[in-house]
Amino acid sequence: MRFAILMFIMAFPAHAGKADFVLPYVKELSFGVACNLGPGTLESGHDTVDGEVILRDKFPDFAVQTRTIPAEIPRTFGAILAVSAPPTSGMYVASVTHPPMGPKNQTGQSWPTLDARGLTIVGYTFEDGFELVPGTWTFRLSDGDLVVYQQSYDIVPAHEAPETRRACKDGPLS
Fold it and tell me: Domain for residue 8, yes or no?
C-alpha cells in the first residue's frame, strides 16, 4: 500500500557497497534490509501504486547487507546514498521498476526526492500483500534524463532468505 521512501538529509556513518551503476559524485554508503521501521509521515500525490510515500526522520539500521530480500511484511530495503552535486534539472527523482503489481499491474513507481546534495535513502517497505512480488526490483536516482545511481535487488519468497529472516527476528529493529 504505502511506498516507504526515506528522503531526509542528515549525517550517517559510511559502509562500503557496490551499486550496479553509480556516477562519481554519488556514493552508496549502506544497503540491505531493515526489519521494522515503525510509523512515518504519509505524503500523498506521488507516482506510486497507491499515490503515497512515507517520510521518516531517520535512516534505517540495516540488519543485513544483502541484495536478496524476503517478500514479507514489514520489510524495508534499499540504500543510503551520499550525493555531492546539486541536480542540474532542479531535483533528483527516485524510481523503482518491479514485476507487475497493484490493481493496474504497474511495473514502475517514482517520486521526487528532497534536496539530495547531502545524504538520502532510496528504498521501499512492503506493507500490503499485493506488493510481495518476487523478481528483480531496480532502484534509480535520476537528474532529469541522467541516471546517476542504479541498483537491483532480488525479491524472493520469504523462506528463501533464512539469514535475513533470522537477523530480523533476533537482530536490531530500526
Answer: no
Give pTM, 2 decimals: 0.82
For residue 68, give the CATH number of its domain.
2.60.40.2390
Residue 163 to residues 16, 38, 95: CA-CA distances in angstroms?
20, 22, 27
DSSP SS3 for 132: coil
Q: Which helix (H) or strand (E) holds 107?
A: strand 106-112
Exposed, middle or buried: residue 133 (CB in 10 Å: 0-12, 13-18, 19+)? middle
**Within-domain flag for 2:** no
pLDDT tens-digit series, residues 109-122: 998 886 555 788 89
In a domain, 58, yes or no: yes
Can you tell me whether residue 162 is helix, strand or coil? helix
Mean pLDDT of the chain: 80
Kindly report the three-state secondary structure assignment for every residue of 137-156: EEEEEEECCEEEEEEEEEEE
Domain limits for position 147: 21-170
